[in-house]
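Entry type: protein chain
Record version: 2
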Amino acid sequence: MTWTSGIVVYVIIWWLVFFISLPIGVRPPHEVGEVAEPGHEAGAPVRPHLPIKVLAATLIAAAFWGVAYWMITAKIISIRNG
């Protein structure tokens, strides 16, 4: 695996993990007993916890990237033709 392909694999894994984590633990205003402010979407989360989700996505993506790197370098799976 070259540096370029390693970075591309990590970025793809990071975005997948980040998008999967976005709906976890969020609540819209009507579920916590608040009213959405005028002009705001009624289903928008009160506290999205984005810094925590970015950190979690970074750590989880690093672990998944490590597994992917090991599988590619150990020839368990191949990304090359032939």
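Comment: The longest helix spans residues 50-73.
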